């Protein structure tokens, strides 16, 4: 094989590898489905889903509209019933819920 043919083969192989990587990444991105579409994006969403889904559907929160104090009371009730998180995580959940589902929405 000549030097030019070898170079073309390497370029073609490299191009195919790059194409395969891009195709795989694009396929995954397109195929990703949000398991919780009723929960808006925001800081604390993932923590809320992780902590709350151990006992109930996290979408239960979407049906409530509370102020920050109301969400704090509710999260404290869940903690007293066995929800497992750090205080910082509970605070993050309260902030998320108060922003995502405030009164009057």
Structure description:
With 105 residues, this protein is an all-alpha fold. The chain has 2 domains: 1-32; 45-100, Cytochrome Bc1 Complex, Chain D, domain 2 (Orthogonal Bundle). The protein has helices at residues 3-31, 45-52, 68-80, 87-100. Helix 3 (68-80) packs across helix 4. The longest helix has 29 residues, at 3-31. The N and C termini lie far apart (71 Å).
Q: What fraction strand?
A: under 5%
Taken from the alpha-carbon principal axes, the silhouette is elongated
- Report the average pLDDT across residues: 81
**Major sheet characteristics:** none
Give the helix tally. Answer: 4
Structural class: mainly alpha
CATH second-level architecture of the largest domain: Orthogonal Bundle
Q: Could you say how many structural domains there are in total?
A: 2
Task: Give the CATH class of the largest domain.
Answer: Mainly Alpha
Total number of beta strands: 0
Q: Are there runs of 5+ residues with pLDDT below 50, and where?
A: 14-28
Helix content: 55-70%
Order of helices and strands: HHHH
Radius of gyration: 24 Å
Task: Write the CATH fold name of the largest domain.
Answer: Cytochrome Bc1 Complex, Chain D, domain 2
- State the separation between the terminal residues, measured CA to CA: 71 Å
Core attributes:
0% strand; 2 domains; Cytochrome Bc1 Complex, Chain D, domain 2; single chain; mainly alpha; 105 residues; 4 helices
In short:
The chain is an all-alpha fold. The chain has helices at 3-31, 45-52, 68-80, 87-100. The chain folds into two domains: 1-32; 45-100, Orthogonal Bundle (Cytochrome Bc1 Complex, Chain D, domain 2), CATH 1.10.760.
């Amino acid at each position: 094989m000549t030097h030019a043919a070898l170079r073309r083969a390497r370029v073609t192989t490299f191009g195919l590898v790059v194409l395969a990587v891009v195709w795989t990444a694009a396929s995954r991105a397109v195929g990703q489905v949000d398991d919780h579409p009723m929960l808006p994006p925001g800081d604390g969403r993932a923590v809320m889903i992780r902590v709350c889904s151990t006992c109930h559907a996290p979408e239960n929160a979407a049906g409530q509209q509370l102020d920050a104090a109301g969400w704090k009371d509710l999260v404290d009730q869940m903690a007293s019933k066995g929800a497992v998180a750090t205080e910082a995580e509970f605070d993050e959940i309260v902030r998320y819920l108060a922003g995502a589902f405030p009164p009057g929405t």
